[in-house]
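hey so i finaly got around to running the thing on LUD domain-containing protein from Gottschalkia purinilytica. pasting the sequence first so u can double check i didnt mess up the copy paste, my clipboard has been acting weird all day
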Amino acid sequence: MNIDFESELINNFKTRNIELTFFETLEETKNKIIELIPKKSTVGIGNSKTLKDMNISQVLNERGNIVFDKTLAKNKEESKAMKKKSLLSDWFITGTNAISKDGHIVNIDLVVID
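ok and heres what it spat out for the 3d tokens, dont ask me to read them lol
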């Protein structure tokens, strides 16, 4: 990525009180997530291909976090319970659909708890 463009993005997000960081690999990203989230925290996980590819639910669970990932539910009732618990978790991790150059985050996903 162009350094000037990257700096502009970082500054535009900073004006919205959002810290923006770029990573070259999924491994670097996963390591940063692990560094940021305390071991005793509960973590809700959004349905994200990127998070699945880095196996973040299993990694966090194995180190002692309580993880609420609806995609690992055994049935509809368990999925519903996980969705509700993830709303009250200490941390919630998800992907985003897009970001804008001026510092907006765009998500078009819908969470349905029925």
